[in-house]
Amino acid sequence: MAERTPRQKAWASHGLKEVGRAVLDRFNKEVRPHLPKCNGTSRSTGEPCGNPAVAGKQKCRWHGGAVPSGDEWHKLQYPAATSKDWQRKLNEKLKRAERDRRRKERRLAKTTPEQRAKHQEWQRSHKPGSKAERQRKRADRKIAQEFKALTEQPERPASPELAALQAHAAYLEAERDRYRALAQAEQQATTGVFD
User: Fold this and answer.
1) Are 68 and 77 in contact, with CB atoms under 8 Å apart?
2) Angle between helical axes of 16-26 and 6-13 (0-180°, round to 10)
3) Is 69 in contact with 55 (CB distance < 8 Å)?
């Protein structure tokens, strides 16, 4: 067994292990039940996820709560220059981005022209940008779909009262046209050659 470090010895000698365990137990009993829960579902069991959601989000870290959202959605996130080992983290991030780009190119090279066109259409309609702009576009698409569904619906049958009114209106229009034709014929008959 490896020898304990001075920090581990201090932790054990001052009873910090027990204090930490007591604080965690108290947190789990008193605070955790009142935290907002993740609204994701477990892939293996299909049960709702019981983990606390990331602050300001509706998902836990495992279900995407830590993924950038808002105006930072779909943008490469670089490490802050004040963080520890920021150069190493930056190099890893850039290598990962280049590897992902090459994978995407290989995957697209294997697709059919129809699949590629569908993918390009999706990319065109899902451009990164501000959250407000994406919400506006989403609302516009929803309104367009609802309008299309309304225009494609068959006409509802008229109520009996409305059908009776429409029939009466059609009868009146036909009578008007008949009287108009009679008046024109009479006018033509009464006018002479020299008038």
Assistant:
1) yes
2) 70
3) no
For tokens 């836990």, what's the residue? 60
Tokens (6 digits) for 113: 């022209």
Given this model, what pLDDT does residue 51 score?
Answer: 87
Q: Which residues of 60-69 are buried (b: 16+ CB within 10 A; e: fewer)?
A: beebebeeee
Among residues 92, 95, 60, the alpha carbon closest in space to that of 79 is found at 92
Answer yes or no: are the C-beta atoms of 176 and 170 closer than 8 Å.
no
Identity of the amino acid at 161: E
Predicted pLDDT of residue 195: 54
Structure tokens at 131: 């959250």
Other C-beta atoms lying within 10 Å of the C-beta of residue 174: 10
Q: Model-level pTM?
A: 0.38
* Separation of alpha carbons 194 and 185, rounded Å: 18
| Positions of the chain with pLDDT under 50 | none
Structure-block tokens of residue 62 = 């495992």
